[in-house]
Amino acid sequence: MMAAGRRPYIDFCFPQSPLNAYWNAGWMRILGPSWRVPHLFAALFTIGAVWLTADFLFRSFPARHWRGAAAIVAGLAVALNVNVFEYGALGQAYGICLLGLTGAFRLTIRAVERDTPLLAAAAGLSMGMAAGSSLLTSTAVPVFVVWMLLHNRAGSRWKKLLAFAAGVAIPFAPVYWLFALGPRQTWFNLLEYHLFFRKLYWPNTTRHDLEVLTAWMYSPQALLLGLLAIAGLWYIARRSAWVPETKAEFYLCGWLAVALALEAGVAHPTFERYFLLQVPFLAILAAAGLYAVASHVPRLARPLWPALAVSLLFAAELGWSIYTDPDFEDWAMYERLAKLVDRVTPANAPLFADEPIYFLTRRRPPEGFELVYTHKVKLPPAELAQLHIITEPGMAREVQSGMFATVYSCNEKATEYYGFRNLYRQHENLYDCTIFWDWKK
Prior knowledge:
Elements: H1 19-31, H2 36-60, H3 67-79, H4 82-87, H5 94-111, H6 118-131, H7 140-151, H8 157-169, H9 173-181, H10 183-196, H11 205-213, H12 220-238, H13 244-266, H14 279-295, H15 304-324, H16 331-344, E1 351-352, H17 355-361, H18 381-387, H19 392-400, E2 406-409, H20 412-418, H21 420-423, E3 424-430, E4 433-439
Parallel strand pairs: 1-2
Antiparallel strand pairs: 2-4, 3-4
């Protein structure tokens, strides 16, 4: 929709910061409207974050004979993380956020050493790229600011602060423009929706959040990463003879991990994938923790074997997670569904479906159907119209009026609620979904 010129917030509901979506829309205008385009760039962004994480340790780890092993362990801890692997290469904002956060980290630790504020501006720009794509990264901003002010070693810290702030502000240019066009719509999509309406689709939100927040206890990968990161922090603070500047860089990783985890933890509801944003910083600390453990065990003093063992453990859980994933979906499945929908639906005829099917059939969603997680929002009718939201009763009225030539559903409760089986003569099942067409006039 954005590639076709429609504006988020103003023309349709889109409760996210928009930079990643504009990036994807721009490239799809150049390379074509394929799901492969955003996946390609998200994968490249995630690869970039892996490289920045590993390269930091390869260049900066104080124990020189451990630099290669530390870089490998940290890089694989990120690349083989279950959530990073699954979500980092999707068209959502996780890939660009990982790159923005790790880029801001590398640039910030350089900025405090140099007299020029340009590196601080670049760090802010990288951080703004992440926050402009997802506000889940926003708590990293004050961490970088405070750390930069406390550890600045050359030049004016206040000039650097202003340069960093200017850099953060630049990627939010689309938000300023959209706010000028529609303050109410922009406020709702960026803040109000998340504060008051996200939980409508998870009635047992507190229980759900508790399950997510304790899921790490059942993940060997998460336990290993967390324990090694704690060991790393303890070693750096209590046992290492590292110079204060080096210690401060690793402490920055700890503060970033805590800040990002707190923000993900207070999201209501929260999800395990939100916590992938802290993985690069935990991985850096975990490499230090592995070094601390190995250096106290004579048989593990050589870096090859402990690095290999930890990497194999990370790889084993990723492989097991992929093999046992009960909710596995791929684009091939949706492409088959979209082909069937296209076959039974006349050109330009209204279609009742969800986001993947609209995207693959190149059909514009009807007004209010752009985002499935808005139909339970309750506001005065004038506000709903301004925000381009249609409620479930409104959807039911449109379905039962015969507005749609074809309807598609993978939810039996929704099929019963809307009465699809009584409204259409023909249907066909594919996977766990049903396509209905041929309206009973």
